[in-house]
Amino acid sequence: MTRRSGVVDLAPSRLAFSPSNGLPAAGAGAGTRQTVPPDAARPVSRVRAIFVSDVHLGTPGCKAEHLLDFLRHHESEFLYLVGDILDGWALRSRFYWHQTHNDVIQKVLRRARKGTRVTYVPGNHDEVARPFCGLNFGDVAIREEAVHVLLDGRRLWVVHGDLADGVIRHAKWLAHLGDTLYDWLLWTNRHFNALRARLGFGYWSLSQYLKHKVKNAVSFISDFEHVLIREARRRGYDGVVCGHIHKAQIDAIDGLLYCNCGDWVESLTAIVETLEGQLKIVAWNSVLAPGERVPRWNDAEAEDEPQAPQAVPVT
After folding, report:
1. Is residue 117 part of a domain?
2. Least confident of 38-47, 102-111, 283-292, 297-306
């Protein structure tokens, strides 16, 4: 299997890696302090497409506020929700729902109402939505898989990726056991980063670091990529956009594009296609506009609907 990573020269589209909101990417700069720039200095970026996966709403580990802040600073023509947006497995065992989780849903529905073409591709953790594939929930299209056409005309297969996970397909009980152990690792990661924050350091994913140091995990990720690339080629696509394994990545593998969105639990990443057709991984490790109100999906805003002039009383 031939692999090229880093900045991949696949003209005419261009790929770049890990631009962030002015801060080090997750897993990098673990020993450096961070200064959050003022939100006024960060304008809204307009991109062609946004791909987000593995948000895991309904779990304490979900970084919903970071995702909200990312969406505040990015607008797009297309928005793909690439699976595991809700965590039905966790909600069945213990109900957890923070206000920011509701705000994420309101933000997405509002984007759809304002004209963004939103496609939701359920994953294994939100498989409860799969019976509704082929239907539309308001302005949100629910699909088992999708196709995104890049600016240069190449077709990317958009799928969560659990179909390439043999444990999910053939030993689901083992997947649930692994999920429980993973939740414990995320709990450790959350408290570890709370301590780092008190000491003045930025976010760094201990769980990502440990996972990528384990030989079997690295081997699994490589097999996962290969299976999806092979299936994308069989179906006649030019590449694949997926999630599932919580490892953001853009690579050229055997001549096809492999794009993984990462997650909003550990790496806090998304993939965007710029207006020029460039694919990028965006890491969003700090909130630039904390506490900003999130309008409901059907609220009118001044920029959406002009206000009627007010009558001035005559005295």
Report:
1. yes
2. 297-306
Q: Is the pLDDT of residue 46 over 70?
A: yes
Report yes or no on 301 lying in a domain: no
H-type alpha helices, the chain: 64-72, 88-93, 99-113, 166-170, 172-198, 206-213, 215-234
pTM summary value: 0.72
Instruction: Say if residue 282 is exposed, middle or buried (CB neighbours under 10 Å; 0-12, 13-18, 19+).
Output: buried
Q: What DSSP assignment string belongs to 205-272?
A: -HHHHHHHHSHHHHHHHHHHHHHHHHHHHHTT-SEEEE-SS---EEEEETTEEEEE---TTTT-EEEE
Output the pLDDT for position 34.
41
β-strand partners of 51: 80, 271
Amino acid at 247: K
- In this structure, what CATH number is given to the domain that contains residue 124? 3.60.21.10
| Residue-range definition of the domain harbouring residue 92 | 3-25+37-283
Q: What is the pLDDT of residues 50-61, one digit of tens each?
A: 999 999 999 998
Which residue has tokens 């780092």? 196
Domain assignment present for 302? no
Phi, psi dihedral angles at 273 (to 5 degrees):
-105, 120
Domain count, the chain: 1
| Angle (deg, nearest 10), helices 99-113 and 64-72 | 30
Model pLDDT, residue 93: 82
Angle formed at CA 251 by CA 85 and CA 283, multiple of 5 degrees:
50
Residue 19 Cα to chain centre, angstroms: 15
In 3D space, the residue among 133, 58, 39 whose CA is nearest the CA of residue 99 turns out to be: 58
Q: Percent of the chain at pLDDT above 70?
A: 66
* 298 found inside a domain: no
